[in-house]
Structures are given as C-alpha cells and as structure tokens.
Amino acid sequence: MADRDLRPLAITGAVAVVSVGLLVLAVIGDRLGADVGRGDVFCEVPHDLDRVFQPANSLSNLGFVVAGLAVAWRAGRPELLGDVLPRLRGLPTAYAVVTVLLGPASAAMHATGSVLGGHLDLLSMYLIASFAAAYALMRLVRQGAVFFFQVFLLMVAACELVGTIDAEVPVVHIAGNLAFGALLVTAIVVEVVLWRRADGSRTDLRWGAGAVGSMALAFTIWNLAQGPWCDPTSWLQGHAAWHLLCAVAAYLLFRLYCSERVTDALRPVAVGSRSLPVVDR
C-alpha cells in the first residue's frame, strides 16, 4: 500500500478553517452588509440567535465542508483515483476545495440575508457546476488540464454574466440558478455520452446515479420547502436537507470520477501539459 499524500487534506483543511473562520468573523462584525432579504424565500426565520438570520439553513452547510474533506482524504491515495485523475495533478485537490467553499459561501447568504452573501452563494454554485461540466467536456474531447481550466473559467464568467439578468424565472426564481442547473444537466449528458462511447473509458454509473438521485431528491425538497413543507420556526428545514443532500451528491460525483477506467483500446499519450488516454488509431 502506497503512503498517503497528506497535501490534498492539508490544503483543503486550511481552506476550510480559513473560510469558515472568515465567515464567522464577518457575521459577528456585520461585514457582509445589511439584511435585504436574500434567501428569505427559503422559509426559515431567526431562532433567537443573535446575528444569524437562518440558523438551520446556515449550519447545514457544514455538510459541504465534511464532503470536501472526505474528497481530500481520498485524493491522498492516487491508487484510489482511477486511471484519469492521477494524470491531472492538482484537480482532485481543486475539487475538494471547491466543495468545501460551497459551505461558508452558502452560509454567508443564509446567515445574513445580505447582497454580498447572496453573491458568494451563487459564485460557489457556479464553481462546482462549472467544474463538473468542464471536467466532462475535457474528457469528451480528450484534452488536458489547460483545456479544463480554460473552459472552467469561461463557464464561471458566463454564469456571472447570466446572473446579472434581473428577471423572475419559473421554479428556480433567478437566472443564476438557471445557469447552475444548465451546467449540471450538461455534465450529466456528457458523462452518459462518455460511458456509451465504445472507444473511450468507462465509469461506474452507480456512483453517477447516486449523485443524480441525491440531487433530484434535494431539488424536490427544495421546492416543497418553499410551499407546503414550509415551517418557518422549525429547526427541521427542508432547505437544510437540500444542503446535506447536495453535499452527498458532490462526494458521489467525485467517486464517479475515481471509478473511471481506461479501456484496452486506449493508450496514454501526451496531450497539452498532461498525459491522457486517446484512441490508438
């Protein structure tokens, strides 16, 4: 058994401590701005806790921190990362960091109801969805890490641009949420195409099905919690369940990536700055 590389966990753990610590200080010091009602559609009202607007919806975001640390722990063992991820040095850690940041960024909105908190929440959503879509597209066209980061940044920028559209969107409320959902659907479709492609690599779709199932259940609860399941004074909030299920989905998605195995029809060659499998023609 190979020795565990502790750098992914150390980096992710440092990001978790710093980001959560900064959030706590910002909430205590009212640094994120005034409560303007961002997130008030998500039912919960204060529970006699000073400075925290939606405590259950805020604290449930710790699930993302735990999921990100779990990803980082596995990332320290390259032999558990499948055939593709180990060739993309740094990407498993980047995914762990992005997952962790979902926690304090979302909590920033639910704890304060501020404009800046809402922006941080959306940005974290853009990061994880862009990662999933860009990573799928990178493998579809058999490119390397440089391509991934170019597409990733373009997608985040596009989401930010779409998020500036001030229009009510059915079901998901705002254009930024629609962009987030569109990227997730893109990632799902491309992952299925990759699995079906005979001359490519194969993943264990049970992990993907688990991730999609968790997201589907989370989205169902997300909607019901804004309607018939809304109990503003309860500590059992449907939107908190949305956070926890999304954290599970983020971890299962990483396990899908770790399950990827290159078929016999492929051989590794240099692509860009990394070595990735391509068809031997």
- What strand line-up does the widest sheet have? 1-2
The 3D shape can be described as globular
Helix run count: 9
Instruction: Tell me the series of helices and strands, N- to C-terminal.
Output: HHHHHHHEHHEEE
How would you sum up the major sheet? 2 strands, antiparallel
Coarse structural class: mainly alpha
Look at the structure and give the mean pLDDT: 91
Distance between the termini: 35 Å
Overall tally of domains: 1
Note poorly predicted spans.
267-275, 277-281
Strand portion, in percent? 5-15%
Helix proportion of residues, in percent? 55-70%
* Annotation, overall tally of beta strands: 4
Task: Work out the radius of gyration.
Answer: 19 Å
What oligomeric state do the depicted chains represent?
single chain
Description:
It is a single chain. The protein contains 9 helices and 4 strands; from the N terminus they run αααααααβααβββ. Helix 1 packs antiparallel against helix 3 (62-75) and helix 3 (62-75) packs parallel to helix 9 (238-258). 46% of the residues are buried. By secondary structure, the protein is mainly α. It has one domain. Strands 1-2 form a two-stranded antiparallel ribbon. Strand 3 (266-271) and strand 4 (274-279) form a beta hairpin.
Protein traits:
mainly alpha, two-stranded antiparallel sheet
Summarize the structure.
The protein is mainly alpha-helical.
Reconstruct the topology from this structure.
Elements: H1 7-28, H2 55-59, H3 62-75, H4 91-112, H5 115-140, H6 145-163, H7 175-196, E1 201-202, H8 205-224, H9 238-258, E2 261-262, E3 266-271, E4 274-279
Antiparallel strand pairs: 1-2, 3-4
Helix pairs in contact: 1-3, 1-4, 3-4, 3-9, 4-5, 5-6, 5-7, 6-7, 8-9
